[in-house]
Amino acid sequence: MQQCCEYSKLNPQCETNSNRSKFAGDTKVRFFERFSNYNSTSHEFYRSNEENVVDQIESAQLDGILPVQANDRQKVNVRVSKHGAWISRNMDSTTVDRIPLVNIVFSLAYDDGFNRYNVAMVVKARQSEPEYKCHVFQCNSLREADEFLKKIDHLFNSVVDTIERREAEECEWVDV
């Protein structure tokens, strides 16, 4: 089943504190969901979702829809908490986007081959719609891109641990 994915042209200069970023705009592209019982000979289904997302980003860059380099883009801050991601303009703190943590589908980092290190964060746009939005960030180094992903991963693990602890505390033990 093909589903549409909207790519947001966010190209930040990632930092570990505030993740100063640059904003460019939005465009729609395709994203493919995988179903375990779906058999297809289509080329897209032989590749991982991550590979397909990187392909879509690079195609959008080649078509001029997404910028290849973020030098002249407006800076934004990216903050991630247990509530989700908040993207705001660096100049006046105006909110560009708020993403609930539950809507983040996956994130990935990759080197585009020109010494630019990108992070892509794929998020569910609306629960009732089959669309995805992919925010693309550009970092100064692969280490910064990895640090960004580690923070998101750590945050998800912390939330899962908290939920598991609450469930364990609420569990009533029964002798068998």
From TrEMBL:
Domain of life where this protein originates: Eukaryota
Taxonomic lineage of the native organism: Eukaryota, Metazoa, Ecdysozoa, Nematoda, Chromadorea
GO annotation, cellular component aspect: cell periphery; cytoskeleton; lamellipodium; ruffle
GO terms classed as biological process: negative regulation of focal adhesion assembly; negative regulation of substrate adhesion-dependent cell spreading
InterPro entries from the UniProt entry: Integrin-bd_ICAP-1
Gene Ontology MF terms: integrin binding
Official protein name in the record: PID domain-containing protein
